[in-house]
From TrEMBL:
Keyword terms, alphabetized: Transferase
Phylogenetic lineage: Bacteria, Bacillati, Actinomycetota, Actinomycetes, Propionibacteriales
Alphabetized SUPFAM superfamilies for the sequence: Nucleotide-diphospho-sugar transferases
Superkingdom, taxonomy of origin: Bacteria
UniProt protein name: Molybdopterin-guanine dinucleotide biosynthesis protein A
């Protein structure tokens, strides 16, 4: 009579604990005459280099044109807007990722210190995330840290993501607002937005 099989080991799947980053570079730059925002420079460093420095040490997914030595994805179809891009980046993350730093490449004054403050606010306050707000109280949705499970719960089906406003995607989330320091909330949408950046760059 064959020996009985031992009972199957219970699954002990570890809880997701990691933090990753999604850097959004895929905008059309329409108000910049089609200029590639990622390639714009400040202080001798491209906007993309500055964004990658801000999230250094994290697993990074870039949404946009291919970047050497960094995993890059695109929303499908391309040109779906930042919410679709964010969700494409989210889909590329591994199952161990519990929170994600989201950063648009057109915010060149965001630094690793900014990201650390956002992560600390999120960890301190709990909820679904923390995002930067400028001096006028405007939410900078593309500079924040978000709970991955909450983002996935809020995400519509893939066929409904193209053109989805970021504000609508994040509306169900309970978010902490972190006041910006100095010029870190400054974003570049038009050529005049570049004026004075050197003076704000610490």
């Amino acid at each position: 009579m064959p020996a009985p099989r031992p009972p199957a080991a219970a699954s002990t799947g570890a809880a997701a604990t990691a933090t990753a980053a999604v850097v959004l570079t895929g905008g059309t730059g329409g108000r910049l005459g089609g200029a590639d925002k990622a390639g714009l420079a400040l202080g001798g460093r491209s906007f993309l280099s500055r964004a990658l420095e801000a999230v250094a040490g994290l697993q990074v997914v870039v949404v946009g044109d291919p970047v050497e030595a960094v995993r890059t994805v695109r929303e499908s179809p391309p040109g779906g807007g930042p919410a679709a891009g964010l969700l494409a980046g989210l889909d590329a993350l591994g199952p161990d990722v519990a929170s994600v730093v989201v950063l648009a490449v057109d915010m060149p004054l965001v630094t690793a210190t900014t990201v650390a403050r956002l992560r600390a606010a999120y960890e301190r306050e709990g909820g679904d995330g923390a995002l930067l707000v400028d001096a006028d109280g405007r939410a900078q949705y593309l500079c924040g840290v978000y709970r991955v499970a909450a983002l996935r719960a809020a995400a519509p089906p893939s066929g409904e993501r193209h053109g989805l406003p970021v504000r609508r995607l994040l509306a169900p989330l309970a978010l902490v607002e972190l006041p910006a320091e100095g010029g870190e909330a400054h974003d570049v949408d038009e050529w005049p937005d570049l004026d004075g950046l050197d003076g704000l760059d610490g």
